[in-house]
Structure formats: structure tokens, C-alpha cells
Amino acid sequence: MRYHLISLFPESTTSYLNESILARAQENKLISFHYYNPRSFVKPTKAQKDKNKPYLQVDDKAYGGGPGMVIKALPIAKAIEKALKFATKKKDFTKELIVFLSPSGEQFTNTSATKMAQKFSDIIFICGRYEGIDARVKKMFKMKDYSVGPFVTTGGELPAMIMIDSISRQIEGVLGKFASREESRDASKDVYTRPETVEFNGKKYPVPQILLSGNHKKIEGWRIDRKGGTNSK
After folding, report:
1. Does a structural domain hold residue 233?
2. Does one domain contain both 222 and 168?
3. Is 154 a domain residue?
4. Predicted TM-score of the model (pTM)
């Protein structure tokens, strides 16, 4: 799986995507990340060549008024175009998905993640900022609006990372043992490890006795109950 992130702040994602399981998946060539900064697709104006203005302008005031700035369509379109050219050059290219991250998009779920992992070889994430991206970019390319929840984040980078993490788990080999995915087995929302009793501030917190019983059938039932949200002990 090749992930393409179109972002004004790509460095905001690397601290997470290049660590732990996702880092190992990259080393094993199961996934890869490719970044496209819209600023790379605009030419500096005379004013922007000033040393005190190092960032190339990719936004402007919204038509119709209102607070905040809107990211222009062309820098995003050119970034998408470059990502698509990179994708189609790959021999194992099958199909790409362009994701437009929006609070009003379709709710992303674990089912969505599984389908994406099975269907696509390249996923392009458009990470908006400020008041959003000029809507005309949606007319230039076929894309799908997705939301990771009923809330608004400062930018699209965090939702993109949530989706990438969830999708990557569905790729065989990323987690080491494919069967270790919690959603594919009876896994309790509560887990315990050694020691058998933890002492903190003068109080003892023991492991539920059923987990020490050795009765695997009862333990499995307990996990199913816990997964369902009951208060079995």
C-alpha cells in the first residue's frame, strides 16, 4: 500500500508514521509514505521573495466574505496530479482512491478500512487547513469525502493518520500475526498482566480471578461479555 499525503505541514505526521508498527511495515516494504506540499506547486511573488516571508502563498480570502483563509484549488490539483503519476508508474498499480477529509464526509469505520486495504494500491489523502480547500478541486478529480468522527480538527493530517493506522492493520504482515487484530477475535476491552496484585496508595488491585482459573471456556465467555460492555467479574 502506498499512502500519498497532500499537506502544508507534512512534518506534523512523520513523528507518528515513522515509529513502532508502521515503521516496521515500511522497513518490510508493506507500506510506504509519499508527501506533496502544495507550496511546491506555486511560484513566489515579488513580495514573497522577501526573506521575512519564507512561505509561498497558497491561500486567499473566501469569496462571499467570512473569517479565515481558503486554500487555492490549483496547488492542490497539481499535487494530486503528481501523486497520480507516481502511482501509475508502479508495476503493481491496481486502483487509486483520493480521500477528501471533511467533517461532513462519510463516517470512516473499520469496515471501510478493510475494504480499502483489499481494493486499493494507492490512497491519496488531501489534508485541508484553515477554512478549507476551494471546492472546485472536487470537480477536477473523482474523490470520496470521509470523516473520522463528529468533530472538527485543526487540519486534515490527524484524521489522515487515524485512517492510515486503521487501514494498515488490515494488511497482512503489518501486525506480525494477522490473527492478532482485536476485531477478528473475542477480545475484552479490559486486559491484565503481571503482577497478580498491584498495590497503589495503600490499596490492592487484583486480577479478576476468572483469568487465573485456567478454564479457557469460562475465560472466553468472560471476554465476550467484556467486549459487549457488561460488568462481568
Report:
1. no
2. no
3. yes
4. 0.82
Contact 34, 97 (CB under 8 A): no
CB 224 within 8 A of CB 186: yes
Count each helix (H run) and each strand (E run) in the chain, helices first.
7, 9
Which SS3 state, helix, strand or coil, does residue 71 take?
strand
Specify whether the CB–CB gap between 26 and 103 falls below 8 A.
no
**What is the span of the domain harbouring residue 69?**
2-178
Same domain, 129 and 82: yes
* Residues 156, 211 within the same domain: no
pLDDT tens readout for residues 33-52: 999 999 999 887 666 666 55
For 197-224, how does the pLDDT look when each residue is reduced to its tens digit (9 = 90+)?
A: 999 999 999 999 999 999 999 988 888 8
Question: What is the phi/psi pair of residue 47, to 5°?
Answer: -70, -35
